[in-house]
Amino acid sequence: MSLFVQQNCSISNFNTSDSWVILSQIEQSIRRKIEAVGKPLKDWDIQIYRGVLTGYNEAFIISTEKREEILANCLDEDERKRTAEIIRPILRGRDIQRYNYEWADKWLISTFPARHYDIDNFPAIKDFLLSFDIRRLEQTGKEYIISGEKVKARKKTHNKWFETQDSISYWEDFNKPKIVYREIGTDMDACLLSEEFVVNNKLYILTGNHLEYLIAFFNSRVFNKILMKAANITGGKGADFMYNVPVPMPSQSILQAISATDFACNMKAQKHVDMLFVELLGLSEQERSWISSE
User: Fold this and answer.
1) N or C: which end of the chain has fewer CB within 10 A?
2) How are the residues of the chain apportioned to helix, strand and coil, as percentages rounded to the nearest 5?
3) Residues 6+ apart with CB under 8 A from 75
């Protein structure tokens, strides 16, 4: 046992108040090189927000078939147009892959409190939501007996019964180009979206500058084998973690190379980008070999 400890031990510094993670010597060396040429993501002129928490997905996340049914129940074309505008395509955590996504034909009734909607302007949506019983949807935290079953309303907030549970004051960012990534998982698995999707609370969106470069870094082996070690895989990739991630400052040549890369083509493109970051960080042969290993 003592020989195993001698061969596999790692010296770590826990003298700071920051969160810490145990890394091997080679991992510590690579992380120091990342920090030496990088700056925290919070200094990159970006914003990170969690996706939408409805508090009752059964009512607010619907199929394409149900969306068409709601639109067919609108009284006139004006109501149909208003209604269609707030039923938005939604992506869930399970729909996101590295550089890609698979939309499952799901839609969100996007009655965000920050939009201050009057539900009476959307009679077809109102009727649909009321079919679930208003006591289930109200945001009071109260308990009721409905058809002999104990039912608890959504948690207590100041929001109205037809609104989502979160205020979503950042709703406009869903209309912007954005990086979308999963909260849970051992890898980042992020993709870049220009479409006006909304996302659920198992995902985060990142908007701002340098999105092509950032998504290449987030999906790189350097990021996933080194920086992801400090994240809790069951939900530790929120804004608090990501804002403090050190991101290497890019050279003009790496920006041009990433911009010219078609990531959807094949994994050869990802290997090319991985090598760009290896060069950018000036990794040793031993470090290169470790990064490339499975």
Assistant:
1) C
2) 45, 20, 40
3) 123, 124
